[in-house]
Model the fold of this input.
Amino acid sequence: FTFPAFFWPLLAYIFLSLISALLSVNQKVSFKDSKELLLFLIVPIVYLGFTEIKILKNANVALLISGYASSLYVIYTYFFETARPYLRATGFVGQKMTQGGLLMLFCCMALSIFLFSKEKIRFLWGAAFLVALFALILTQTRSSWIALVFCAVLILLFYKPKTLIIIPFALVLFYFISPKWIKERTLSIFSLKSKSDQPRIEYIKAGIEIIKDYPFFGTGPDTVDIVFQNPKYGLSELARKNVHLHNNILQTAAERGIPTLIAWLAFIFLTFLSLFKLLKNKDPTLHAFTVAALGALIGLFIAGLFEYNFADSEITALFLYMITIPFALDRIQGKSQESTT
Done:
C-alpha cells in the first residue's frame, strides 16, 4: 500500500520512542505511556478503511454530532454547574486545556467545511463553528485562542484573501463585548508575570539542560517530571508540580531525544507539504477537508508552543483523523476514476 508521505516519519517516531522507553530512567512508566503510540494506527485505519465516500461522510456526520454535544455540554456545565466567572469550563474530558484543544481543532473543521463545501450540511457546520467558538472562549485556553486565530487566517486566506479583514474586527469586537474576566485573560497573553507564565520560562531553561544531559534518547517517555525534580534544574516548587514542559518541541526532545524530535518535525513538515500539494485538486469536498487539515496542523503546532498537546490522546486522535481524511478521499476519488476508464 502507498501511504501518505507523513506516515513514514511517524513510524520512525514510534521506533525511536520505543528505544527511548527501553533506555528510560523508569522503564515501567515509559512503556505504560508507550501504549498511546497505538493511536497512530488511526492513520492506516482511516486511509485504508474508508473505502467509499459514504463511509467518510457518515464518519464526519458523527464528528459533527459529537462536536455539537461536546460544545453544548461545555456551555451547560459552565453556566449551570460552574457558575463562577473566573473558573474555566471543561466538558466531557474534564481537563480545560485538552477541551480547548479539541474545540480548536473542531472549529477548523467546521469553518472550512462551511466556507468550501457545496452541500447543504455546510450550514450545520457553520452553526457548529459558532457554538464551538463560544465553548472555546469559556475554557479560557489562551494557547487554543491564539492557535485558532492562526487557523482562521489560513482558512480565510485560501477562501478569499479579502475576508482577512474580518479577523482584526472580530478580535476587537470580542474584546470589547467580553466580561471583565475574559478581558483579563486576554490581556494576560501579552504578559509574562502571571503565575502560569513564570513556570513556562523556567521550563524552557530546565528543558534545555535536560536535553544536554540526555541528548540521544531522552529521559524516557513520560519521565521528564521525574527528572526535573532534581534541584540542579532550578525549577521552583510550583513548576515541579507539573508533569511536562508545556512545549511540544522541548518535551519531545527532553523525554525521547533529539533524533525523535527530528522525526516529529519531519512528520509536521511532510504533512504540510503533502496537504499543500492536495490543494491543486479543486473538488469542493476534498478542498474543504484539505484546508481544515492544514488549519489543524498549524493550530496544533502553534498551541504546542505553549502546551504539550501532542501527548493528549484525545487531541492526537482527532488531529490524526483530520490530517488523514483528505488523503483517504483522494484515494477514493482516484479509484473511482480508474474504474470508469
